[in-house]
Description:
The chain has about 375 residues and is α/β, with parallel strands linked by helices. It folds into 2 domains: about 230 residues, D-Maltodextrin-Binding Protein, domain 2; about 130 residues, 3-Layer(aba) Sandwich (D-Maltodextrin-Binding Protein, domain 2). About 40% of the residues lie in helices and about 15% in strands. It is built from 14 helices and 14 strands. The strands form 3 sheets. Strands 1, 2, 3, 4, 5 and 13 form a 6-stranded mixed beta sheet that branches. It has a 5-stranded mixed beta sheet with strand order 9-8-10-7-11. The chain is elongated.
Amino acid sequence: MKERLVASARAQVFFTSLAVALLLSIAHGGGDAAESRPVGWDKTLKAAETEGEVTVYVVDYPRLTVSHFQKAFPKIKLNQVDGPSGPALTSRLMAERRAGKYQADLYIAGQGTHVSILYPAKALAPMPPAFILPEVKDESKWFKGKHRFVDPETRHSFVFQGHRGLYISTNSQEAKAEEIKSWWDLINPKWKGKIIGYDPTIAGVARNVLWYLYRNKALGPEFIGKLYGDMQLTLSRDHRQLVDWLATGKAAVCVPCDDAELASAREQRLPVESATHTLKEGDYIAGGQGVISMIAPAPHPHAAQIFLNWFLSREGQSLFQEQSVKAGQRNANSRRIDIPKDVIAPEYRLRDDAVFWENGPNVDQETAEATKLLKTILAKRP
């Protein structure tokens, strides 16, 4: 109950702050987005106002929606449909479609359900034609100078968020995080039986880590065998339990532990730390719940375009970052590079000069292969 109250309070702070920011933006002429609106914007806006509303399906986090969007565009009502997870929300959306009810205009969640469910069902519309604002079309404004899409055709599911994944944490009295320069450093007899981690066989961050280890040519199946097999890594599905084991010294290393639980432990001055530097094998860039798609057919296609362009504009992404951090999401880094990053903790910011890995449209197949390998390794353990 306490956790729900805290989450509710954070969401309320987020919504209120964002509403004020939007109103101030409108009072000054709509900010950057207003200054760069092409002629097509006004025509689309007029059609959107005739439609009168836009419906965004979003997973869990208030940071991924603009709840007071209608205060910036008073003639367009925003309907926000929340879901606890991608699979749960996608199940609802697909059930509605089977019943002939097309309610969603846009969908915001993690990569998985966009690629594995909505794309094969031909439920997504191409996004580049919907980009109206020059600053949204301009790929130079985004990380590595390009738009990032994760669907097989690279035009349906747009990734607007990206942060460095910090996946190795230690008990600072048992192991110094800064001394870990490579993933292979974990394969050390002194840590056998003292490494823990979240179960990668279920959806979540740990599964992303497993994919990274599997696909990284410097690591691969050999490393996975040694880490999860030879080192006798202990798995749990309880984030809090893992950090408790780490903080009390029952474990020396965690791969991975939950960011929020680690932050809470540090606030209590418990001896936990994370490896924030780039390891020899390169960074993994996580997208979190930061993937947006347009649903096809959309009941309010013009209003969907207005929301999409505003949200991906410099103004929209700046607010996304600022208000997300205020709501407790320290790693909510936008892939736009032309906005201030002061609010993002340095360790989560993307580094243009670093070697990095990002999953793509084949991630489901690759993850399935990695999971099968892991289960075989675990089954052979004594």
